[in-house]
Amino acid sequence: MNMILSEKEYQAFIMERLHKDNGYLEPRKATNFDRLFGLDRELLFQFLNDTQKEMMDAIANIYKDNLEETIINFINTETTKSGGSLLNVLKNGIEISNMPLKLMYNKPATDFNKELLANYEKNIFSVMEEVWASDSERIDLVIFLNGLAIMSFELKCNMAGQSYGDAIYQYRAERNPKTRLFRFKAGVLVNFAMDLEEVYMTTKLSGSDTFFLPFNTGNGTGVNAGKGNPPRRDENSDYSVSYMWNDILKKDTIINLITKFIFIETKEKEDELTGKKKKSENVIFPRYHQLDVIRKILGDVYENLTSQNYLIQHSAGSGKTNSIAWLAHRLTSLHDADNRIIFDNIIIVTDRVIVDRQLQAAVMGLEHKSGLIKVMDDKCNSADLAKALASNTKIIATTIQKFPYIVDSVKGLKDKHFAVIIDEAHSSTAGKDMAAVTKSLGAGEQEYDDIQDEIVDEIARNGKQENVSIFAFTATPKPTTLQLFGKLNYKGQREAFHIYSMKQAIEEGFILDVLQNYTTYNTFYQINKEVEDDPRCKTNDAKRQIARFVELHETNIGQRIEVIVEHFRTSVMSELGGMAKSMVVTASREAAVKYRKALEDYITKKGYTDIHALVAFSGKVKVKIKDENGNKEEKEYSEAGMNGFSEDKLAKQFDKDDYNVLLVANKYQTGFDQPKLCAMYVLKTLKGVTAVQTLSRLNRICPPFEKKSFILDFSNSYEDIKAAFAPYFTTTLLSNSVTPTAIYDLEAQIDAYYVLDPSDIDAANDLLYKSIIDARDKKKLTFYFSKAKKQIENYDLMEQTQIVSLMRNFNRFYEFLIQVSSFEDVDLHKKYNFITYLLSYINIKHPGGGFDLDGKIKATNFVQKKAEEHQTPNLVAQPIVKLPVADKFGLTEVKEERLSQIIAEINSRTGKNYDNDVAVKAMLQIRDILLKSSKLKTTAKNNTIKDFEFSYLDSIDDALIEGLEQNKDFFSLLLDNDEIKKQMLGIFTDEIYMSLREVGE
């Protein structure tokens, strides 16, 4: 292949490929272009006469010599009128004097109709170069379908010192959006800016505000995936953008895009001044990864039918709503090799209470067909869902929470085939809700000879169903999600079927990197006792009470609010032309109320009139707040009461210029898209997926503004937050798998307590599987559960807690195991059934509420100190994740310490750097203390090293506190950081275990 040296040669090369490889006509002369109507008259009428001769003759009988002008004027009117568009004309044609004319033929879903197939093949594709759209606007290439201009290209040659950026500039600065060829909805469907390496696109020219999207394949795979396109392998290989002429500009692809993908999105927004709703429209053209995932899924389903599940790991900013809408729509008409429809129903499942209306609008935007989609909104109940599943409605959108209530009421669905599309497959998809989905859709009319058969069938209906394929979308797949829906790669790891990574989305500019402009704050304070006695209390309970006391302390809140408000006013408020907004993430509903009150007090005191806050939390909460005289008064607060309007109006109200701060408590941390959100102030601990989802509320771009994000974090370290993002930055891989061995180990641990009678388990299951359970049966069941409960209560409180914990972990692990494997053990399933009901029946009573610290401690000397500022995260992907192992789920023993020791631990705050010698010396001191522990000596003598580890870890804090005076600074650091403590002291486990066993012997 000769090297392309100029833009002109690049144009000629592309046209040659389109003609020779893609069946386009010989390149047409630019003189054939009718700039007034944006078409090639000759080809338009060649198509009409070739495919619809009888209709053309009938119209000609009416309009005679004015035939051509009449048809062109009709087309122009339909494309330029209010509500009209070229897309609509291509899809639906026009009608003249009650006579329809098609302007494009779709590809039939089956090959039954030979005439339709023949007409489809008669669609005419052509290309022109150097097209004059007006006297001053010359376009490099224009693509035509049946004579109608549908795509424009501005080409640049990197070897001539220009790139796609120069092409984008031309579209923005030198192309008039009112020119017929570029007129929104009436002109070309899409405009491409393309050089030899990258492609960008837009469907709407708006001068300098024109927003271009990348249309690149992505460069690299796995952890190396990023923006752009793969570079050329050598001088003889094709160009990086060759997928455009090798794929995108092929006849089948273009028709497919027009008929199945491109749609007009209509949004309504309330005018803040008039209160009237304004409509805005946009032509949606799929980004490359969206087109790619739909085509790859359809291809795989065509081959494998309903035998597979699919995990789609697409980052925020990937356009997931439209991807789901396209997939749902395409699956409704997908046929197999024998021309049979593959899916009877498409079910879109979400864990949100109200199904996304945007999703419904996107589906309807693709095809306005009555009864195509049924949305189970908040007014619909589970009975409505059961009816919809049994009906002929093609697409059903519902919440996942409705399925558990229909499991026993639906029958006969096993003969139907379902595609289940899960929106955000990370929260409710590994437990009973997901099991209810598969059990419902796999339900049949089967009669059982005995309980054994019924249990076997119930186990089978928990896992992958032959008549159900699941398509799970998420940006942050948990290990359980990967196990449920991921595919095995050649290394034996489970991964997503398709990936559009966070890294690529950031590099392409679809989302922001929220780890930039990240500042952490440390809170320093002193805790003192207000009582003379030194009562004993549980460590974890006391720590929680003290942490809550500090968190809600008026001085602490006041200082943080001052930092937040002043930072927002000086660094954030002016962003986005003064429309910037912020979110304050609080740790509790009480905190949300108190911080909102403190914010109002502060801005009133300072005389600020440019900050107005809303609050978001569920239900009602009672809060003690000081009145003007300093006395605490308890009042009940609700979100609606504090905001002055109902909860369902909050998102719309916050979008207005009237409000710019939103304080939240476990609300709006997921699924909340507000592009004007620029800053987040974090006042609670965030871990794992929750951290990623919460902070990602900031990552939405807000064109045409160059948005920046800011985070001030009072509760988390920057390294912990980076660690939370690392598994989801590129690709996420599951390295281990679930096995029955672990569940049998848990069963053995439960059996060792002798609290479950096998004969009771059998008898209870006989009753549970009866078609009708009468009062006598219920009395018997109560006896069995009461008997087991009493057996558990024979143990002390600590062991009762351990038994219940084991049972809960057994159930959770077993539920997951039967969903992801073909595991079948009837006796184990009976035990699972029994334990499920038993856990609902028992209620371990804890003696009192522990020691109440209210009024017994005080906090002073609060200081909010800026710790670190981070501009460039340099995040390194950590793609490997692992499933939790069943025997690691158990609780560690809750130890007791004196209140003075706990206060000493929490008050320990250091900012020093420890050298190696100091650290080693400190470690040896701790080891010596642990070696003197009589408690550990007894434990080592009577247990294996694995069981010894639990007691060992519990004893570390005692040892640290005992030796606190020897090395106060370093010991305090370990007391404050569990991860460092376990990591460093774990190296002595074997040594101390062996030493103490020798002493014991």
From TrEMBL:
List the Gene3D superfamilies: 3.90.1570.50, P-loop containing nucleotide triphosphate hydrolases (3.40.50.300)
Per its UniProt record, what Pfam families does this chain match? HSDR_N (PF04313), SWI2_SNF2 (PF18766), T1R_D3-like (PF22679)
- Biological processes per GO annotation: DNA restriction-modification system
Name it. Restriction endonuclease
Q: Which UniProt keywords apply?
A: Endonuclease, Hydrolase, Nuclease
Q: What's a Gene Ontology MF term here?
A: ATP binding
Q: Which SUPFAM superfamilies match?
A: P-loop containing nucleoside triphosphate hydrolases (SSF52540)
Domain (Helicase ATP-binding) ranges: 282-500
